[in-house]
Amino acid sequence: MGVPPKPKGITDLPSSRTPTKRAKAETVAIFAVFAIYAAFLLKLLLFSRAPGSERSINLVPFATIAEYASSHAPGTARVAFANVVGNILIFIPLGVYASWLRHRSAWTTMLTVASVSAAVEIIQGVFAVGASDIDDVILNCVGGLIGMLAFWLLSAIIRERSRVRTAMAVLSLLSLPVWCYFFFVIRLRM
What we know:
Elements: H1 21-45, E1 54-58, H2 63-70, H3 76-89, H4 92-102, H5 106-127, E2 129-133, H6 134-158, H7 161-185
Parallel strand pairs: 1-2
Helix pairs in contact: 1-7, 3-6, 4-5, 4-6, 5-6
């Protein structure tokens, strides 16, 4: 009544359900860099201004973008570019990480990105720490969509899930100095 012997030729390979040390380390690296990115995002979007310093709310889609496009005031082009491109760029990593974490439909990933963006805009409006703007949510969603598409492209090229995790870990670690620089070195003055 003992355990039957293993057939010859079968070795103790780790199963696909039991994560290896390498897989655990990669996952920890991805989560650690994501945490630093999330902390920078909070610092940039919520803690870079004093509470009560600014309160403006725009609920009309594309109104701010149209205002930027039609304005001929000096310096507006620079502010417009920074606002539009910045709102897109800062949410690309969220689209990538949300896609990696969720591995679900595009709708749930986009809902995650839109929910985070809308929550930030609501908090900015309630605590008067920035301009609450529906255009920011739209631009953030465009950034999240770009990140999601980049992740899907990476997944389509690599295909094997464990290698996608490895690629995500490598890309996360490569981006770590950038996020640390943004979080610890740059003093945000807005």
